[in-house]
Structure formats: C-alpha cells, structure tokens
Amino acid sequence: MDNMLEKQVFSKLLSKAFDVPVMVTYWDGKSENYGDGLPKIHIKLNEKPNMKSLAKMPTLTLAEAYMNRGIEIEGSIQELIASAYRQSGSFLTDQSGFKGTLTKMLHGHDKNESKEDIHSHYDIGNDFYKEWLGPSMTYSAAYWPKDGMTLEEAQMAKVHHILDKLHSEPGKKLLDIGSGWGTLIITAAQEYGLETYGITLSEEQYAFTNQRIQELGLQDKVHVMLRDYRDVDMTFDYITSVGMFEHVGKENLGEYFKDVANYLVPNGRALIHGITGQHYGAGVDPFIQKYIFPGGYIPNIAENVTHIMEAGMQLDDIEPLRRHYQKTLETWTENYHAVYDKTVAERGEAFARAWDLYLQGSAASFESGNIDVIQFLMTKGAAGQGLPMSRAYMTAREN
C-alpha cells in the first residue's frame, strides 16, 4: 500500500472514530480536522502505523505507537478514548479484528501460570504502587458515597461497605481471596471482631501484609498465606474477594465460584467485588494483556450469575459501582501525573507512558459504560438467610 493510499485509509478510519472534534497531524506534516466545531484534542502521528497490525489489533498497535512516541496526544487521553467508546462503529472498539487472537487469550490458568501472571503485575515493586495508590495501598475501586471525600477515605469506605454488607458476627472467620496489601483483613479483625485469613500469590503483598500484622500486634487475629486460591483447606463463615475474578481466566471462572461455595459453611455469605461488563464483548484487550494484566479476562454479568447459580449459591444483592471506579481512576491518574517524571527516570519513558495510557483508558472505559464494577452478595443457601429484611443495614454507616 503506497503512502497516499495509506493516508486515505487512515483518514477514513479516523473520520468516524470519535464523537468529539479532533485534529490529526499526519506523518507528512499536514493536518486535518474531523468532527464539527473547534478540535478538543490534537493527535500527532509522527510515523505511519503498520496497517496490517492496525487491522488485526488496533488498540495494541496504537498503544505501542503511543508508548514509543510514534503517536502524541495533546489534550485528555481519557476524553479521547471515552469518545471512541461512545462512537458507534469506531474501528477502535470493533472487536472483529481480535478474533484471531482470542483463543489464546481466553485460555484457563494452571497454578504456575496464575503465579507468573500475578508476579508480572503486582511484584514490580510496592514503591511504584505506593506513589499513586496512597497509604491504604488499595488497588481496586474506592467507594465515594459523599462529596468531598479523599481517596483514602473513599477506600476505607469501600472496605466498610463490603464488610457491612456481610452483616457479620464477631468471633467468626473470614477469608479474603486475593487479599492485596491487607487492608480488608486487618480492618475486619480490628473493627468487626473477626478472625481473618488472606491469600495472595504476590510475594511483595505477602511480605507487606505480614509486616503490618506484626506492627499492629494482630498475629492471633489476622493470618496471610502465600498460596493459590485453589489450595485452601478450611471453611469460613464469610468470604470476600475484591478485584480477583478478573485474574482467574475465562475457563476457570466456574471453578473459582465453586471454590467460594466449597470454602463456605452452610448459610455462609460471600461478597465478591470485581470488574465486569453489562454487554457481550471480548472481555480482553491486547494492550492490557501484553503490558499490564497478563492472563486477565473480564466476564460479563451474565457469566458470573450463571457460575454463581451453578455453584449452588443464591444472590442477595447486586450493586453496580461503575461511576465509583471512574472517579477512583481519575484520582489515581492525578496522583500518577504528580510522580510521572520520577517514573520515567526510574523505569523508562515507554513504561511510564503505558501506565498513563492504561489509567486514563480504563477511566474512559468506565465513563462510557464499556465496563462496570459490580458487587455480588451471595449466600450458600436460601437468599437472604440471616440478613435483615431491609437493605438499609448496608448503608447505615453512611447515613
């Protein structure tokens, strides 16, 4: 394909890619405006994209070009990507080009693969995450029920919202599958009187949580284990799992929910919080697969509900929290930009640009409704067993 034809093809694709006006400066130095009104965003194509790669995996091809400054964006990346998600028929969100790679991406994970996937994402260093996650080291959607909350307040509100929904009784046992840096299991022990257990595959998270447990003198109440979620040999009154099922792989989702059921005592309750979609789609993105979350898969809500029923559990409550994750990601992005130059110096520009693109792109995905985050409250038994007749108890703390 010659240079002129490539430009014509790309111009046609871009003319229908966004629902906000943009200006595009091409590799030959010439600029075109697309959409009505003054451009809100300026895209500079410093080099020609590979058209074959673009047709096969557009998001990965463009993301790698951005990482290496083949593409530069003046204006909000979040606004640009949200615009593409809103635009019907945009080549950036057309899943048809991904079909050739989906089979590989949707594979199930054995235990070694799961450990390697977790290691590649979470063990890049606690210091990196601490820079923008804040003191709670909570890497999932915060909960913002009131105006003016800080990120730390909203993250603790999320932990309380989860634990309050369980309507737990002091002295009983709780398991947190994918316990992160330990905030939930420590809070559950300190404020709810529970004996808590956390499991993680991340050595960095395991060491960090153990240090916190020692510093707080909670060795008798809080326990953390470095193991696969499939290797638990106890039962619990309550189970929580936050931001975990996105990591298990499509083929393992059914087993994951069956494990949750198996680890619960009769009439035990679980609160599962994770990213899901309220539409049918691929559930994967090649850029995020390669550079951010290897092995990840985002199930739609119907998949999760089917697995919950097949595991013999019943739903007590489903709560979508899409806007809460959008706000969380926007706050993380603001924090990340404050340490962006430091990240470049320590890890290189391509790494820093990839994470900036990931954070803003994810915020855009939630903003547009392309993905959601949902809390599933369920009972291993009849729905609502042991819970109040009104849902008011769930938000009593907020009110």
Automatic annotation (TrEMBL):
InterPro entries: CFA/CMAS (IPR050723), CMAS (IPR003333), DUF7884 (IPR057206), SAM-dependent_MTases_sf (IPR029063). One of its GO terms (molecular function) is methyltransferase activity. Residues 10-95 form the DUF7884 domain. The keyword Cell division does not apply. The keyword Methyltransferase applies. One of its GO terms (biological process) is methylation. Keywords: Lipid metabolism, Methyltransferase, S-adenosyl-L-methionine, Transferase. It comes from the Bacteria. SUPFAM superfamilies: S-adenosyl-L-methionine-dependent methyltransferases (SSF53335). Belongs to the CFA/CMAS family. This is Cyclopropane-fatty-acyl-phospholipid synthase.
